[in-house]
């Protein structure tokens, strides 16, 4: 095979690359809103192109060329049996990375999330301060220069030798291991009243998954979706979360989260609860009891019981409430008081920022 090299031509290569990046950015945004449905996202992209002439530039990339490039780069694939276009694992990873970058960008603009730990201990990041060596310290953190200086000051060059008291090691950041369960409300109210609440919740879960797997590999993250019942969701399934015709069984979600955390060996355990509404259902004697009108104490009290159990098991519940109704906020205050947890009344725009600030700050406040 022969390759022919020539000078870079901006008109030939630069425009096409810019066109792909622009269309790919829009395609990813559409994937958030379609719940990872590539066919629907491409259909919306086609409609946008027809209306706004996105690919009308002669030097740019046509929509057909863009779709072909998506396939060539491994972002989409066509099912051989059904012929349905779907996104690949590479595209799923790209959505997680994009979500993480967007939320951290918001944190920097808002001045939030840059929290240093006040503790020192067994950690990954070396500090300039040193201390005497103690049994069990990682020898990779040995301060060689300081150790040799101690030996020299003690015996001089004529009687140079190393004693146990000469050794010193660098301090490191305090290291904790945290088990987190993220609960996501998939009840029907998450898309009611003309407001899309599931998309920011889904995007926040994608970003948190990417943050933990990339920067905190010893932490664990489990996802629990809840509606009429509660079920576990794998990280690879996050882009496809969809709201269903469900009531809000918060009690079932907390029970499932507790079961997961009970199996985790991490000393520090927490639940992040993303919801927009009141609990409106729970199971009684094997049947689903439901009441969508007002705050039914028959349901609410069972949820508060779960919050109390979490407190006894040292599981902190942080609630991210994306609703402004005073009576719903009153329920969240009761839940927070019983659990001695935390609550944020977040808008759809700052949900991710609040969650990330809380995760990073409180992760470093945990004690070993």
Keywords:
6-stranded mixed β-sheet, 368 residues, Rossmann fold, 43% helix, 3 domains, 10 helices, two-stranded antiparallel ribbon, alpha/beta
User: What ranges have pLDDT less than 50 throughout 5 or more consecutive residues?
Assistant: 12-16, 110-124
Question: Which sheet architecture does the biggest sheet show?
Answer: 6 strands, mixed
Radius of gyration: 26 Å
CATH C-level class of the largest domain is Alpha Beta
Mean pLDDT: 84
Q: Look up the CATH topology of the largest domain.
A: Rossmann fold
Distance between the termini: 60 Å
Q: Mind explaining what this structure looks like?
A:
Helix 4 crosses helix 6. The chain is an alpha/beta fold. The longest helix is centred in the N-terminal third of the chain and has 25 residues. The protein has 10 helices and 12 strands. 43% of the residues lie in helices and 17% in strands. Strands 7-6-5-8-11-12 form a 6-stranded mixed beta sheet, sandwiched between helices. Strands 1-2 form a two-stranded antiparallel ribbon. A two-stranded antiparallel ribbon has the order 3-4. It folds into 3 domains: 78 residues, no CATH class; 47 residues, no CATH class; 186 residues, 3-Layer(aba) Sandwich (Rossmann fold). The N and C termini lie far apart (60 Å).
Write the layout of secondary structure elements.
Blueprint: H1 10-34, H2 38-52, H3 63-72, E1 76-78, E2 85-87, H4 89-110, E3 126-132, H5 144-155, E4 168-172, E5 178-185, H6 198-215, E6 220-226, E7 230-233, H7 250-263, E8 268-275, E9 281-284, E10 287-290, H8 297-312, E11 315-321, H9 326-339, E12 342-345, H10 351-363
Parallel strand pairs: 5-6, 5-8, 8-11, 11-12
Antiparallel strand pairs: 1-2, 3-4, 6-7, 9-10
């Amino acid at each position: 095979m022969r390759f022919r090299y020539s000078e870079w031509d901006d008109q030939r290569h630069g425009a096409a690359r810019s066109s792909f990046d622009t269309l790919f950015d829009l395609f990813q945004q559409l994937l958030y809103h379609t719940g990872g449905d590539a066919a629907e996202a491409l259909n919306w992209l086609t409609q946008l192109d027809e209306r706004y002439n996105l690919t009308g530039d002669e030097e740019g990339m046509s929509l057909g060329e863009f779709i072909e490039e998506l396939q060539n780069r491994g972002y989409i694939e066509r099912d051989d049996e059904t012929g349905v276009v779907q996104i690949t694992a590479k595209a799923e990873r790209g959505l997680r990375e994009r979500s993480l970058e967007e939320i951290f960008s918001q944190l920097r603009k808002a001045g939030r999330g840059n929290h240093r730990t006040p503790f020192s201990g067994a950690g990954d990041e070396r500090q300039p301060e040193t201390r005497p060596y103690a049994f069990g310290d990682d020898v990779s953190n040995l301060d060689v220069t300081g150790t040799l200086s101690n030996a020299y000051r003690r015996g001089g060059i004529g009687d140079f030798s190393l004693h146990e008291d000469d050794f010193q090691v660098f301090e490191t950041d305090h290291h904790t291991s945290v088990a987190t369960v993220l609960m996501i409300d998939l009840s029907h109210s998450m898309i009611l009243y003309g407001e899309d609440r599931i998309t920011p919740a889904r995007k926040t879960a994608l970003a948190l998954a990417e943050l933990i797997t990339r920067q905190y590999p010893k932490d664990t993250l489990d996802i629990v979706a809840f509606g009429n019942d509660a079920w576990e969701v794998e990280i690879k399934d996050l882009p496809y979360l969809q709201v269903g015709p469900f009531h809000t069984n918060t009690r079932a979600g907390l029970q499932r989260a507790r079961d997961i955390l009970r199996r985790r060996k991490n000393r520090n355990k927490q639940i992040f609860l993303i919801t927009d509404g009141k609990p409106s259902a729970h199971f009684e004697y094997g049947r689903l009891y439901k009441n969508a009108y007002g705050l039914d104490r028959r349901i609410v009290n069972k949820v508060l019981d779960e919050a109390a159990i979490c407190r006894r098991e040292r599981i902190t519940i942080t609630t991210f409430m994306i609703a402004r109704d005073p009576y719903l906020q009153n329920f969240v205050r009761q839940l927070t008081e019983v659990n001695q947890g935390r609550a944020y009344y977040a808008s759809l725009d700052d949900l991710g920022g609040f969650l990330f600030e809380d995760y990073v700050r409180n992760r470093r406040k945990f004690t070993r």
